[in-house]
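quick one, 87 residues, struct below
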Amino acid sequence: MRNISIEERAISLAQYIIDSKDTVRGAAKKFGISKSTVHKDVSERLIHINKALAIEVRKVLDENKAERHIRGGMATKLKYSSKRDVS
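---
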């Protein structure tokens, strides 16, 4: 990701998030950059580059945010159910 411009990176991140419905954290891991950078690219920079793309990625991020508590609950359930099985 180091050889492309910030604008290209923001567009690539947005396309990835829209296509995969991945989270900011997942996109950061995939592209090898920090989640702060991903968030800044798709939330602040992208609106000046491609407004339509920014609106689409915002929908996915809002959906992920609404589902966040469910994913956390499932992770906790999995964590404690595997500990009980081992004992």
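The two ends are 45 Å apart (CA to CA).
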